[in-house]
């Protein structure tokens, strides 16, 4: 069994990141230098986050995140860069997700109609099975 | 079957009103479950007597009958034709409402195609804006919220798909769409909880606390806030939120199709 | 001069409501109105398309709106049409019963019908609409059609072609000269679009053979006087044939070194230039970049022409493309299929760098699910300049089938069977099949369930159970088989997959016919006929035909083993292996397939194999009845086939198009199989030859991709066989999409 590796997300390279100067650059400078963030914070003026991770797929096991780089650029209320931090995989937490789901009021079509719904395919091997 | 012979009777020598009444009778009393004969009567009225008051009423009744027969495309076509030919008529409101209903009734489970939900929302908004004080508008507003909620649920479902697979940024972006564009829906509390979970998983604890704070501030009583609270204080999830044994997990996901 | 009307009077309207007319006119009571305003109202009424004529007559303080409504259409019918049926014509005609009649629409409809006929090659068709007035301002519309004869292409000729003869070029065109079968063949009918298509095919023919500047300068087609024949001439300017100069690769991306990519070009200097070879080189290089995990990579072939020695130098430049990301993946059209079933086919995640090749590969995987009649994936610009939204639009097709049947067999008596199959159970992409068949003495119950992505991982979990009592055709004993097989299958490398399975089964061999082979009678005595078998097995498959670097060549390798003896009465090892190489040649129209397949059974422990454990001849070679070849006991009247411990076969096949239009979905194939089934533990007790006797069969077949699945009609002739083998020269089988 050989492992298959895949990258997801995008983290700016060192040289691009060097163009962002704390205390001077504003959001447009950052966009020009390293591009738009993969994700951002909730409130107005919240930080910008660039996340890149490397995944290992090995046989029947669930894919495993083996490397993660998070670059967090935070801004003050005037929009200039206050801090550029780096996080790794070890800073993340293993979170147990809650199974609870909001119920939607719109009823799906009944089970029986679904099962009988998509008929019409006549498959050759049924007719010819000897 | 029995009704066949009566269907072939040529209607040319009946008056418009008689044919219309037969159609109405067929719809109310005859066999409400299968309104096909009623639909035929109404279309005959329009063909034979295109100048009568009955032709107008037959057209709207035909749209209603097709809708009940779950023939949504035809119902939409008839309703649209009524709106084009009799824009000033007081039944036009009902025709527009019927048009919206035909999309709304086709909306299906969250996991499925949401193209119809958009069309339903647009048609419902048209009714609400054009006939604000009609009772169609009131029921449209209710259906509008439900359809809007349905759209939010779709974003949540895709967000949960990425959250479960560990692609936190993709999940965060989907949940942020719900929090920003769909705040009025019932999905927002859960979106905020998922954001807390995703930010925490990335190690952005202050963003996680912000999300939990918004959740606590606006939805204090929601069970999702309780989960977020426990999560942040690392006290472990309440009983029904946590998954149990390995085998039950397989049963839930493979047989029942739950997400976790 | 402006007006003020306190009262509006509508005259002449019959069907249209006064309220409607006022709404279109848009004039309010006592509203100040200039002459221009009045004219606007007139225009609005006219534009509504409901009225033949409109008049606005101001009379003091009242405005009279006099309208003449268009009549409505009562019945629409067509006379004189044979080739195009009524409901087809009704579909393309705008005039409908119960709609407003307008002369302009009827004229346009007549033109549409003429166009439809011209499409079908009947240039001489004539259509003139007739209007029949009815009472109550209604009209009937009748289209009288004179179809005329088909315009056929009498002769196709070319000018300016030096390198290739008229006959060779004619083979490239989709338009054919009218020959003997002109009445049946449709491709000799003169159709305008087909000329454009032919022009393109001619240019491509030359371009793919190195004539880089080839052009079809013009196509002239004179109509024969009786308008039923056309003479077509294609004028071609060939230009020079170019060859490949030197091929180089440079890389402007630091982490990718050019030498590694240069090996993938696979273009020989001096070979005739062909754009297809360049495309394949680009495909291979971009595929390698994808594998090395480099993002935003683009391979541009830069061509420099040197006209003196007619060569083209190609420099493959590996460059960093613009930073573009996937903003969202939106999926639509999935009425029954759940979103995740489609979304999980994407390796790209929202927010990832945008890689067109990976998106195309995902589109292939979605189509390969077999749940959709069409699945197109295209991209549109996202909310920012560096964002792209991937739009997936699927159209579902029925995926479930429920077959009822009652069968009557001379020996098996009356039987009922129900077979339920669904490959998209509840829209989750799960496959489920339930079969229940019962004859008087043949029973067949089966249940299969497959979850293609177990626990949302790329892990296919399956469960199969069966209970079968049956009589093998042309063999004289009864069997009973029951069993259960849970299985798991997952990828272990880019192209390799590993499947693990456990099988628990109980096979029974009973009431062997008196004049059957003594060997079978002894076997039926073991454990009074029924053996428990418990085995674990694995099968490793390696397939590069779809995901490989070179789209024209790929191969498929499968190796599987089952270890019997984890409990149960029977111990043994069963090994099977298959190697299939596939190559597309002649502009990918002809596919060559070459198979090497074999199997071996080695039993140890208390019992030897019985007929049930050994290999059967059906499915190994074509051209024989089931159990038609292999060791046989010639001493007894029944001459039962006894199966074999070993089999090996080599198959060679060439599949080619039959030249028929593609909508028939027909292809032809010629093949040759050489192989054998041999080896028994003991052969005493009868005159049995279990030696390795080669059989050879050649044949031709018609492949039909029918609506109910891919079918094969094989016509075979055995060149070399044992005299006791039972040949079968025709067979209709479901060709599994291997």
Quick summary of this structure?
The complex is a heterotrimer of chains A (130), B (260) and C (738). Chain A is α+β, with helices and mostly antiparallel strands. Chain A contains four helices and five strands, in the order E-H-H-E-E-E-E-H-H.
Shape of chain B: elongated
Number of separate helices of chain A = 4
Order of helices and strands of chain B: HHHHHHHHHHHHH
Q: For the residues shown, what is the average pLDDT of chain A? A: 80
The major sheet of chain A is characterized as: 5 strands, antiparallel
Keywords:
heterotrimer; A: 130 residues; alpha+beta; 5-stranded antiparallel sheet; 4 helices; elongated; B: 260 residues; mainly alpha; 13 helices; 0% strand; disordered N terminus
Summarize the structure in words.
The complex is a heterotrimer of chains A (130), B (260) and C (738). Chain A is an alpha+beta fold. Chain A contains four helices and five strands. In chain A, strands 1, 2, 3, 4 and 5 form a five-stranded antiparallel beta sheet that branches. In chain A, strand 4 (64-75) and strand 5 (81-87) form a beta hairpin. In chain B, helix 8 runs parallel beside helix 10 (188-202) and helix 11 packs antiparallel against helix 12 (223-232). Chain B is mainly alpha-helical and 260 residues long. Chain B has helices at residues 3-7, 16-30, 36-48, 53-68, 72-85, 92-104, 115-130, 135-165, 168-181, 188-202, 205-218, 223-232, 246-255. Chain B is elongated and about 80 Å long. In chain B, 52% of the residues are buried. The longest helix of chain B is centred in the middle third of the chain and has 31 residues, at 135-165. Chain C has 738 residues and is α+β, with helices and mostly antiparallel strands. In chain C, 16% of the residues lie in helices and 45% in strands. In chain C, strands 18-19-20-21-22-23-24-25-26-27-28-29-30-31-32-33 form a 16-stranded antiparallel beta sheet, with no helix packed on it. A three-stranded mixed beta sheet of chain C has the order 2-5-4, with helices on one face. In chain C, strands 6-8-7 form a three-stranded mixed beta sheet, with helices on one face. Chain C is extended. The relative contact order of chain C is 0.04. The model of chain C has no long low-confidence stretch (mean pLDDT 83). Classes of the chains: A alpha+beta (130), B mainly alpha (260), C alpha+beta (738).
